[in-house]
UniProtKB/TrEMBL annotation:
The keyword Protein transport does not apply. Keywords: Hydrolase. The keyword Hydrolase applies. Belongs to the glycosyl hydrolase 3 family. GO terms for biological process: carbohydrate metabolic process. InterPro entries: Cellulose_deg_GH3 (IPR050288), Fn3-like (IPR026891), GH (IPR017853), Glyco_hydro_3_C (IPR002772), Glyco_hydro_3_C_sf (IPR036881), Glyco_hydro_3_N (IPR001764), Glyco_hydro_3_N_sf (IPR036962), Ig-like_fold (IPR013783). GO terms for molecular function: beta-glucosidase activity. Coiled coil: none annotated. It comes from [Clostridium] leptum DSM 753. The lineage of its organism: Bacteria, Bacillati, Bacillota, Clostridia, Eubacteriales. This is Glycosyl hydrolase.
Amino acid sequence: MNQKEIKKIVSEMTLEEKAGMCSGKDNWHLKSVERLGIPEVMVSDGPHGLRKQEDKTDHLGLNGSKRAVCFPAACASACSFDRGLLQELGEAIGEECQAEDVSIVLGPAVNIKRSPLCGRNFEYFSEDPYLASELAKSYISGVQSKQVGTSIKHFAVNNQEFRRMSCSSELDERALREIYLSAFEAAVKEAKPWTVMCSYNRINGVYASENKKLLSDILRDEWGFDGYVMSDWGAVNDRVEGLKAGLDLEMPGSSGVNDEEIIKAVESGRLDESVLDTAVERILSRIFAYWENKTNTVFPYKEHHELAKRIELESAVLLKNEDQLLPLKEGKKIALIGQFAKEPRYQGGGSSHINPYQVKGAWELLNGVSYAMGYTLDDSAAEELAEEAVALAAKSDAAVIFAGLPDAYESEGYDRRHMRLPEQQNHLIERVSRVQPNLVIVLHNGSPVEMPWEKQAKAILEMYLGGEAVGEAAADLLFGKANPSGKLAETFPLRLEDNPSYLNFPGDGNTVRYQEGIFVGYRYYDSKKMAVRYPFGHGLSYTTFEYSGLKLSSDQIKDTDCLTVTFKVKNTGAAAGKEIVQLYVSDHTGSAVRPEKELRHFAKVALSPGEEKTIKMELTKRAFAWYHPERKDWYAASGEYEILIGSSSREIRLSKTVCMENTSGAVQRIEANTVIGDIVANPQAEKVFSKYMDQLWKAFGKPKSDEMTRQIILSLPLRAVRSFCYLPSEELNILLNALNAAVNETARSGR
Ligand code: BGC
């Protein structure tokens, strides 16, 4: 149905029908209008599987849902760093939606992992916005290729569960743009999700559900979003203000209470009816886009289960592997320990909870291994179970402890209280390590844990909440049927107190201050050169890789150019494997406070033994830029930037410097308080100012080679020429005009 036809339908709707269209019929359905042929469509959670509820419904995963395949949660799949795989995941979920008559899947969730304590971190991709948005892009285009919509969520700055429905996230513009919105930006601009879900919280005091700056100015005017915005479940504060700000659909319905508010507001003139019409048009155009492309797909459980396993195989992260203990050798006496070896924890609690198709523990799949339970999830019978496990480990050649967080430790709705594993598990690991040096730890958790026993474990395999096939994947990885190739999408700090948000998480209940600003995750740890347990981007393989031959297309570029970076990666070991290569940019221009390095590109490369491939990555201005609040735009200063190629944020293998020329000028408008350093950074303005520069040098009585004097002059505000060059105020004004004319000329000519 085209726009004209949609407009026609809207023109035939009554005010009541239009207001009704802007809220759900129940938890999962939108309303229909039979007389105009508007069908009833359904939305469902997501994101890592389909949670279609038919009988008792709720938005917190409390009641059951139809059986579906539970794919690895985002905490796991992000570690694949694999765009293609996320596209496949999206396609599978899109197919399932088609099979189950679901028009929109409620995801992906791209909120940034600000603190390891956020109860919902398992649903989120990363602490890095570039990685989060790249993966979200692929997921969205996968789902939407099946003519089903997505709802990228939770927009925005929703990084904790504590008081999530009322708390205000207080942050500065750079943190907002560079970190928290960035995760949404590329996904919205490039993958064009059909819908966006606004978050519950307030942002700098204004509810996301009525935040015009977010929902209209940025989302629509700047990023070009043309779908509809829906509320998170119950996120509406003032329905009419929300509609005005750009919130089209309220979910679920409010039994007509808020529809009534809309009607009254139109009748009283508080709300322009055209605002309502626009919202209805946006909703209808997505309803029909789905309805007209409905297919009769069947749900291929088995195939999707295999995909869930493949994703987890690519996502598990081998954190440590001393003496190449892994893969385990066949024919040895192996002890599997821990309840998770039999009943893996494979997903988190809340609205993303899936009723799985088939779950098996690693123990069930491995022949000839022995088993001891070791611990319970409710911390009971500790001594007895530990003794039994220690005895078994002592008479084995190696012990594999499946440890992790119980369900109650992390969930939607509340945050974690600490970063530790249950004490019973820590003690068990400690005791087993005393009798068995060949100790492997397999972890099931949605977010980092402290590892007081790290030195005693020879190998650690992080499986995260790896979906219903996590046990199968663990069995294959432990015995080398598959080679681990995931890398961490978040830093594992040594202890919770090291996290940059530690002093300001989760706030006082009314507000939470993002004092760490742009220094989130590795941006903080790396800038501070702090020791961490495992850095962002870290992950080992059963083979080794060598990096070489870094080349830049030029060592001198303008901010309007595209820089092509090439380098080689070679598999130097004996096993086939995949390496995730990462490109970081480090700003040496000194133009602003910047993190030591930021991820700007990555690729996953499959290599057989001895094989070498050339990797090509392209960078445009945005890869170098920071958000300039005064310019209200992205800005890359002139000067040097280092291109770093790493196997993690801490293991930089190759680097080269590029010199960038900014074509828009260091400042846009010169004022009496603009510093001379910023003025002379603009070549045209520098020419105009050269006469005064000479006078300043004279006034300081030093040769131009004197570095200290140069630095002092560069940091003088322009008005200082009055004091040091005795310039009358009128002449300062003339100079200001001439300088601004030069700056404008630079902006016009792009030079
Ligand atoms: C969650 C959303 C979810 C919605 C519907 C809310 O509690 O925050 O992520 O999509 O419920 O279940």
